[in-house]
Amino acid sequence: MLVSYKWLKEYVDIDVPAADLAEKMSTSGIEVEGVESRQDGLKSIVVGEVVSCEDIPETHLHLCQVNTGDAGPRQIVCGAPNVKEGIKVIVALPGARIAGNYKIKKGKMRGYESLGMICSLGELGFPDSVVPKEYADGIYIMPSDAKVGDDVFKYIGMDDEVLELSITPNRADALSMRGVAHEVAAIYDKKVNFPSIELKEDDKKTSDEIAVQVDSAKSKTYKSRIIEDVKVGPSPLWLQNLLMNIGVRPISNVVDVTNYILMYFGQPMHAFDLDTFKERKILVRDARDGEKLTTLDDVERELTSDDLVITVADKPVALAGVMGGLDTEITEKSTNVVLEAALFDGASIRKTSQKFNLRSESSARFEKGINEADVTLALDTAAAMIAELAGGKVLNGVVESNDYKPQSVDVAITLTKINSSLGTDLTIDQVVAIFDQLGFETSVDGENLVVTIPPRRWDITIEADLVEEVARIYGYDNLPSTLPNAGNTIGELTPMQKLRRDTRTVLEGAGLTEVISYALTTPEKASQFTKVSTELVSLAMPMSEERQTLRNSIIPGMLDIVNYNMARGNSDLAIYEVGNVFVKFGNEDDGRPTELPQVAMAFTGNTDFYQAKGVVETLLQDMDLRFEKETKLEDMHPGRTARVIVSGKEIGFVGQVHPAVAKVYDIPTTYVASLDLTGILENKPEQVVFTEIPKFPAVKRDLALLVNRDTENQEVLDIIYSAKVKLLKNVSIFDVYTGENVPTDKKSLAYSLTFQNPEQTLTDEEINSAINKIVKKLNEAGFEVR
């Protein structure tokens, strides 16, 4: 929102530098992004009069003699198509600075000396989007009463300062000059002074010429006036300058008035050429699917029932609140004008503007809200201005769909509530004075206040809104600053937070890289790599089909990451993720799923099962860990997958992804592991007891067994440890053999047994005794020691 400081001062009696006003507004709730004066950086730019103008043969250039108030005319070469004798123009003298810090120098063009430059508005810094179309490709023609030799800035409004406001959605009341004036008046404790209009109406009635009907819930009211016998032409210079300074292109006196009212009241308006109407009745209704309308930008739009349209003779003539139609636009030939002012549903306008990519100043205001109390006043003001600037007569009365009158809102609050919220000690008189500054009426009963909020501040509806208003007008910098009383609580990590950190440290120390996958996936992937079938949790309005269901396992997302990396040449991967899965057990009171923390790993490339298993063992090294064969996970290889058991409880699995599943994900042989962090936390030793490193050497002995093909490693380990040999410190398998010299129904397992006595060196007798004890247990279990 661009605000002309000169225009603002017409309504609020303030005399402070624009930069000070910007700072004051920014610290009281409406941020000012910047203050600009178009004349800054420009110099030696004056009004000139073209005394003579001759064409330079075989060029598009013109040789002009220009009077700039010096001793005599100066010669300037100009290429603008609209330069001619007798007009007054903008002249940059030699040594002048124009837009872009470009310096004008004496020079020659086609052999002719040029002592300056005749300028367009663009060369003075005006953007192309606001330059009047008649001057878009040429120089700007100054008014005939401009004094030769004067600075041009005062004639084209460049001596004004423009504030750029950053309006948040809750303060859409400041999307109008009147709203900004109320805000500034409240900040400086001033009164607003809006001029009253003098609307002279003809005896002829509007209702005799046109009727209005609303047949849609998307419009609260629709009002129209008619101005007859207008003469469409350029707006006066003051209006053109004002519109250009606030970012609006001047078009014609009638259209410029509607844009002026839009910026002044924040009330979108539209003007129709009455003589183009095939029926003298306006109907506001929902569009029909397939209806078409050519808008002012000369684009044919196909409408749907979501759109709201203004129709005449059952044909759309405007997209309500967004853009008018080409067939009924105001042109130089228009003489009779129909003005509309309405209240349209913001959600409907937003959908239409987004669908057609037609974001406009009008649609933005309907979306964010407008002052519903000023609709009629804005319409009357526009009619009076058109009659003044374009002639004609305003017909008597307003035709409307209904006499909609918004009501003020009463909000109750107590002085204690205000002071306790702000930490202040304000009196009731101070608070009432602040509400008076804001233009709110207040009734007081003890410390209870009832504040009447006018319709122009539709953002205030609850106690908290009033507290905010008091705070910003009183001054945020005046509020007391106190530190929170936090006591002597010592901050620390929760056990789960600490476990997550420790897990990351261990896995990254083992060479894995952390990844983060999407928690949302497809319903098919969400239920993979789980044994128990649970109810899936899906979003009501997902962004896409690939991101609609909360995951039950982290593994599918990691396999997608493996696929992504493999497609880009990263063939050796070792990755992990610490995250949550979402499981619905059916006993949740609020229907929401339970979040379970897990850690998952994936290995591919130069790897095997034992690497994955080794990383799991490293992570769980302080626990009572064992592995058992897993055959119930359909998405895992049945012969290369193990359940992870800690203290007798299953907390996850490790193994190879089933080849069929790997093919679906388009990945090579991949090993994964998934562990429940809650299960790890429950079985994690509270304290690791330090034991001194033994001073005496350990002794290793190898033992080979002949066992049945279906015998598991864990079964053999259990038997070895059941011998309860105190000197036995570790048992590890180092060879599995099937083939020559081994029966087809058997296999050979080779183990390395480590013995150690922390108090003395072991003797051969002690070692042999321990081995014999273990061999006896193995023989009793039916295993043959080789």
From TrEMBL:
Protein location: Cytoplasm
Listed A to Z, the keywords are:
Aminoacyl-tRNA synthetase, ATP-binding, Cytoplasm, Ligase, Magnesium, Metal-binding, Nucleotide-binding, Protein biosynthesis, RNA-binding, tRNA-binding
Task: Identify the cofactor(s).
Answer: Mg(2+)
Q: From its record, what is one biological process in GO terms?
A: phenylalanyl-tRNA aminoacylation
Top enzyme class: ligase
Q: Which reaction does it catalyse?
A: tRNA(Phe) + L-phenylalanine + ATP = L-phenylalanyl-tRNA(Phe) + AMP + diphosphate + H(+)
Name where it mostly resides.
cytoplasm
Binding note for cofactor:
Binds 2 magnesium ions per tetramer.
Q: List, for all copies, the residue spans of the domain called FDX-ACB.
A: 694-786
InterPro entries in the record, alphabetically? aa-tRNA-synth_II/BPL/LPL, B3/B4_tRNA-bd, DNA-bd_dom_put_sf, Fdx_antiC-bd, Fdx_antiC-bd_sf, NA-bd_OB-fold, Phe-tRNA-ligase_IIc_bsu, Phe-tRNA-ligase_IIc_bsu_bact
User: Where does it sit, as one GO cellular component term?
Assistant: phenylalanine-tRNA ligase complex
**Where does this protein hold Mg(2+)?**
459, 465, 468-469
GO MF terms here are:
ATP binding; catalytic activity, acting on a protein; magnesium ion binding; phenylalanine-tRNA ligase activity; transferase activity; tRNA binding
Asked if the Swiss-Prot or TrEMBL record annotates the protein with the keyword Magnesium, the reply is yes
The EC number(s) attached to this protein equal 6.1.1.20
Q: Does the keyword tRNA-binding apply?
A: yes
In terms of Pfam families, this protein maps to:
B3_4 (PF03483), B5 (PF03484), FDX-ACB (PF03147), tRNA_bind (PF01588), tRNA_synthFbeta (PF17759)
| Annotated TRNA-binding domain residues | 39-153
Residue ranges of the B5 domain? 406-481
Relate the assembly described in the record. Tetramer of two alpha and two beta subunits.
Which HAMAP family does its entry note? Answer: Phe_tRNA_synth_beta1 (MF_00283)
Protein's recorded name: Phenylalanine--tRNA ligase beta subunit
Organism ancestry: Bacteria, Bacillati, Bacillota, Bacilli, Lactobacillales
Encoding gene (name):
pheT
